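Entry 14. Ran structure prediction on the chain below.
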Amino acid sequence: MKLNRYAAHMGTRSRIAFKRWTRRLMFLAGGIVVGLAAILMAYLADHAQAAFGRLLAYSPYLALLVTPLGFGFATFLATTVFPNSQGSGIPQVIAALRLPPAASAPLVSLRVALGKIVVMGLGLLFGASTGREGPTVQVGGAIMYGIGQWAPFRQPGFLVAGAAAGVAAAFNTPLAGIVFGIEELSRSFETRTSGLIIGAVIAAGLTSLAILGNYNYFGQTAAELPLGKAWIVVPVCAMICGIAGGLFSRILVLFARGVPGTTGAAIKRRPVIFAVICGLGVALCGVLSGIHVYGTGYDQARAILHATEAGDYGFGPLKFIATVLSAISGLPGGIFSPSLAIGAGIASDLSYFFPHSPLGALVLIGMVSYLTGVVQAPITAFVITSEMTNDQAMVIPLMAAALIANAASKTVAPEGVYHALAKQFMRAAEPVVRTESGPA
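Output, structure tokens:
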């Protein structure tokens, strides 16, 4: 009798162990797939921008025709063929984490992931000022969410792991991926899933490393900010960029909730026409900037950071306007890379008033401050900026700038853009939630 009970006990433990190891292997396999998806999206984004650049080589004024029409076409696809693919994609993941399965599935389905990849590429092909990193988060979350449906012990950890792995693979920043998953997505640290999330991040990072090699997103910098009067740039730049980031966030949330009055009603009735108007605005910014505001802004931010070209004092404000117009148009596209470029542009402008402060250090402060102002996730912002440049000497100034920028941003926008936008998706899902929960 005791032998039978012991055998049954061991059988139960074996089944549980098998399920646990199956789940762990699925996390690792999912991380590899997310890494491959991130590489695909990077390849697509780079070639789409290059194709648009070749078009503008004939005449920069071609954007005045191509960009508005392209915005309209891409927004039509995003709103009709691939709903829930609009915007960055990170708010959809945050909303999916807080909603029941029936309501969360449409936000992170594989169909949405496919639409995100396709329409994001089209947006960059037509000159949108958007990034690929936010969309990679939603695609990574969708991949892991789909895998998690087949896993034993289902839990939201799959979705968090996929999104975090997307950040890690997109920027080649594994630490930032982990911090992003904790600070911005889950807003908590679950002991049971932390190791699995880290495993997925490692798998995605190793996949990217194996194919693309080891690299720093913005190259390695040796910028330093010596103690003394040069440190005055930290609070000044952090407050300016933090407020600018908060303003950007507030504009996006305003349009997501709906502009009041007849203007808002017209935008809601004719989203494609509104996207065409936004596209025209982006094209005008492009003409004024000498075609520098299109795309992710990666090349421009890198050039400013390494001072490989003369500073353009109009780049920061024009990139800000172009990114706002791209974001409110309804196009799928991220704001991570454009935010870093805007911060670099603003810092470059401020260098005129602080000639004794090292330009590289000032640009890094501007990047982390503006990104913090937008997302209000200071730890993620300074970790991701430090990891992208491998500049250990700037860790303390960047931490200080992130905290100051976060406080400055909250004076303009009470909540970070991702969580504010996530609430809109949650409100839209309320009918599904009520149906699933049944009558009170």
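Confidence is low (pLDDT under 50) at residues 188-195. Will compare against last week's run tomorrow.
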